[in-house]
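User: Okay, second chain of the day. Same drill as before: sequence in, structure tokens out.
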Amino acid sequence: MNVDKAIILAAGYGKRLLPLTLKTPKPLVQIGKNCLLEKTIIFLVRNKVKEIVINTHHLGEQIKKFLKKKKFNTSIKISDEKNKLLDTGGGALKASRFFNNKPFIIINPDTIWSSKYNKELKLLTELYNKNRRPSLLLVHKDLSFDKSFKGDFNLINTIVRKDKKNNYIFTGLQIIDHEAFHNIRKQIFSMNKIWHKLMEEKKLLGIKSKKTFYHVNNLETYEKLVKKI
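Assistant: Same drill. Structure tokens below.
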């Protein structure tokens, strides 16, 4: 079963990209021919995602204008957090109300997504469909263009866990469902809260990406990526 619904997390301030993000929201920062948000939408549409929800906060009106101007050939809705920033978990939970009880992708546009990830999204979907458990796309820190990443997780077969020393970075792509948010009563919370509970129960799964990981982490990395890409 193809997972055809997705949330793009686009509500952050992008503080590590200052001064670029004083007047431009991070998702609209340009890398090559397209901005980060456009690359992410193109990637999702090419992978048969039919319904996208984008959460917004910082300079959110610019994102709305951008979407109106581009007129992407897919359903795109806005989950507005203008009055209250909900963090990654709260933002995803609010945005997911559009999807009823269907599983959905959560994707971070800070990563430079391209057709190189098509096969890996397919494999991630297969892992989710087989086990019906939240699944993350991870990459070994040795494959990261930005060498400042220390690692978020370890991966034993397909089980994700966190140790004192971790070798894998979260790429910003996951497939999840509403069951993972069961019993969450807070409005504002991080996805780390969800992941921590799932890891305690050994219910968080993952696969390894084999691609070089390009992630717009800070201004220095952005400037290097602009020259490279």
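The first strand starts at residue 5 and ends at 10.

User: Thanks, on to the next one.
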